[in-house]
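Morning run. Coffee first, then this:
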Amino acid sequence: MLPQPEVAAGGPAQPLDLWFDCHQWLALGIGCDPRAELSRRDRAILDGLDARFLAINSAAAAAPTQSFQCQDQAFLAWAKSHRVRGILVRPDRFIAQRLDHRHDLRSLDPFAGLAGDAHMRSKITATAA
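And here it is:
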């Protein structure tokens, strides 16, 4: 299960779970933008799942990724000891897989049809604008 760090976004630190819905997929980057650690297919699937993208202690995160600062030494020690750079977290808060932009994530294979749906939604949105 994902450890629960205290994170801040310009205010007081709060538990990570308070920053997003408890029933969403989460791509979490530590020291990086997690979107950069995903294949194009996996980004499209996660967009189709309305996943959240969060970066902890990363200066390189860009929208739609939310950036947070973390001073929680227990969490940072956990991330360092497990060499965590990016992880995919299931809606039940269990870690599904490490992020790897070189390969599609097998954890997302059952949702592969959503990649096309997300692509179509972005085309429709662009056409309507």
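The chain is about 25% helix and 20% strand. Good start to the day.
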